Amino acid sequence: MKENKVRKIILGILSVVIVAGIVLHFSIKGPDIKSKISKQVSIGRELVNTADKGNDNGQYSEYAVKSFSEKVEAAAAVMADRKAAEDDSKKALEQIKSDIEDFKVAENENSISAADVQALMDEGGIKEHTEEVSEGLQAEWRIEGNNLDEAAPVNLDIKEDGVYTADLNQQVSDSYEAERVCNFSLRHDGKLPGKATLVLKGDFSQEENYLACRYDGEAKGIEELEVSLKNGFLELGVEQGGDYVILRGEEKELVNHGNTNTGTKGADSSEASEGTSGESDSEASESTSSQGETIEGSVPSGAQGEENTASGENPSSGGRTENTEGNTSGNQGGNSQTAPTQPAPTQPAPTQTATEPEEVTRTCIIEIRCDTVLNNMDQLTEGLEGYIPGNGVILSASEVELYEGETVFDVLKRTTRETGIKLEFRNDGVHGAGYIVGINHLNEFDCGEGSGWMYTVNGWFPNYGCAKYVLEDNDVIQWIYTCDLGRDIGGHYW
After folding, report:
1. pLDDT at 58 (0 to 100)
2. Residue 80 covered by a domain
3. 421, 456, 426, 479: which is closest to 259 by C-alpha?
4. Domain check: are 419 and 452 in the same one?
5. What is the helix (H) or strand (E) element at residue 29, kind and residue range?
6. How does residue 216 score in pLDDT terms, banded at 50, 70 and 90?
7. Which stretches does UniProt call biased (Polar residues) (predicted)?
8. Rounded distance, CA 461 to CA 308, Å?
9. 400 and 287, same structural domain?
């Protein structure tokens, strides 16, 4: 009897211990993991805050710090999630530990010091350095001392992915029909101390067309860069670090099609209003300006996309009118153009065979000016003085060929590409496709809160985006920088 009682007592005690252990396992172990994650998050945040950022060896690139910071905050999100499974918490703990160790050894390793850059400038030498970017892709730096402007360190590290790679790929996917070949991220922070050449060695064919795009993290847009193909290698000039992508395809596939709903020149005010905000949200076209918008990228926020209350008028300066068929009937002076009819021959000519009519070349004029900045140099962002021509003319009035269906945006993009003028633009749900952020390094807000780019066609300021303005033969386009919401150039809508 006594032995049975003792056994029961022992079994009872064991049962209590087991139950208590289970309770402790679920009530204590979970919080203990979360507290460990919390500790690692604190360590990670401290590393981010104290990281010595720069382009010298031993410093951290801005991209490395941003990438690590995102990983730290991902762990913090798991820590804050009360519903996170224990396995997920364990994985997050191990991951943040690994990320911290990786970051501790992620300093720049392939930088040129300021002293070495100065030596290149003094001697006119050339620095070459090759990086293995990814499987099948090498990138070679070529930095010539004669192309450098100041003695500052250069970070030569190149990786396949960067902080903005996903955003960049999404924008080019929305805006181009071309194939994406490869990505690479130049880990140099900001602008280089001059111009450099990057030679990409990979699967490139002389029979293909290529285009490079760079993501602008501040403007959240993309910038196109010309590339050349030599002996199977791609060469492009670079002026700053960041995330890049190489596209491949036919010429038409390498044209930004961010605005899929291009209107006609005779669009009325209601169409223009839709065009300014109704263009496809996710499209990121490369340098385009939508016709009716107060110049995408050129007019300050708030003014861009506003409807011109006088849009229904036909300005005597050559504004377009709408005919009953919806086509623009006016070019310069608003007169319609009709093809002359050929008189019938008095006698048939049986021996002659019909020949196709000769193709008529169409042209337009484009000019880019920033005269107003000359009167507001005190407001100009420091460091941009060198990009302002003494006469305010970035591109003098130039006659260029006009192709069927081309818009103001298309011509601006093609012309700046051919002349080597830097063009920045973005697409978003507010301004639509091809919002012009900057031309020749002169961006919106660079010369006051009311500054930016606007455009005219035949002297008229359309009230809709440039990507919606379809051009006609002999049209005259002007891109003009305003420092006062258009008031200083006759283009305000109030």
Report:
1. 93
2. yes
3. 426
4. yes
5. helix 2-50
6. confident
7. 306-320
8. 9
9. yes
